[in-house]
Amino acid sequence: MKKQKMTNGTTLQGSVKKDPTGMMKRWGLVLAGGDGVRLRRLTRLISGDDRPKQFCALFGGATLLGHARQRAERSIPGHQVLYSLTREHEQFYLADLADCPSQRVVQPSNKGTAPGIVSGLLHVARADERATVAILPSDHYFSNENLFSENLDYAFDIAAQEPRSIIVLGVQPNGPETEYGWIEPGGTVRSRDSGLFRVNKFYEKPSLEIAQLLLGRNSLWNTFVMVGSAQAFLDVVRSTVPGLLHAFRSVSLFARHRDEARIPDSLYERILSTDFSRQVLSAALERLLVFQLGPVGWSDLGDPSRALVALSRSGTEPDWASEWRKRS
Fold first, then answer.
1. Global confidence as pTM
2. What is the rounded average pLDDT of the residues 33-54?
3. How confident is the prediction for the chain on average, in pLDDT?
């Protein structure tokens, strides 16, 4: 059997076939509706206001949202990348997304990760019912963007061969982190060297004791990057939080405002805040696979100290580092 060398350092044995037309079926949903409260002191130092971290230029002269857009467009046609946003952040998101109003899906408020994901998925499914979608947080960091893009391409290929599954991307941990989500892998899929596993369990921000146990079991950090067919995602939502999906399908989602899609206030007034990891993924383990990324240098930049460590490891400290240390 022919072996294909994977860029995460593993080998997938003849089971992923490149689809030359697959690029046009690829869609992306960039999540940029969060409030970024934990990093507020740092973003205030850098930007002089209380913008969420995804709209702040922490490194490289671009905002995290700008970096996320570039990241998505390396693997996905640019016009097929949607952005899940929150209305009160308009003054910030327009700086990066003014040229693509029809790709902006705007929520009235932030009600957790699930509503933003469901609204984006419905938008994609309406445009292309056979789409394969990558869900990409906008406020994360990868020190090796090229390797991440290569691995994301492989995840798209895997999703095409596993149309009923959602592929969650995990990274090898370097310590018992208690502020990350963890994935406990199950049995391998296809071959023992593929880097592709079934999922035993999710752990969201475990205690130090549990994190140490997970580290010893070769568990992975959850990057919250996911790839799967639009229908697979919606099937999982239907089986876990059917009321949320019904609520979205009961209204006209995509009223246009300056050509961007705006979700009506009336819908968000009657839905509960819903977390996609806790209430959807954790309740649908049989539909999940986890793909172990190579050494991409991932961080969620969740607090100032973690952001400083992650960015400094890339070889050049950010401009704000010395001033932050003085104030800390």
1. 0.92
2. 93
3. 90
pLDDT band for 13, please (50, 70, 90 cuts): very low
Per the CB < 8 A criterion, the answer to whether 205 and 181 are in contact is yes
> How would you class 217 by CB atoms within 10 Å of its CB: exposed for 0-12, middle for 13-18, buried for 19 or more?
exposed
Average pLDDT over residues 114-130: 95
CA 293 centroid distance within chain:
14
CB 280 within 8 A of CB 157: no
Which residues are registered as beta bridge partners of 170? 222, 292
Distance of CA 209 to the CA centre of its chain: 27
50-55-58 Cα angle (round to 5): 95
Q: What are phi and psi of 50, to 5 degrees?
A: -100, 35
Q: Are 15 and 190 in contact (CB under 8 A)?
A: yes
CA dihedral for 60, 66, 69, 73, sign (positive or negative): negative
Measured between its terminal Cα atoms, the distance across the chain in Å is 57
CA atoms within 13 A on the CB side of 188: 12
Q: Quick check: 12 pLDDT over 60?
A: no
Other CB atoms within 10 A of residue 39 CB: 24
Output the CA torsion 92→98→100→106 (10° steps). 40
CA distance 16 to 10: 13
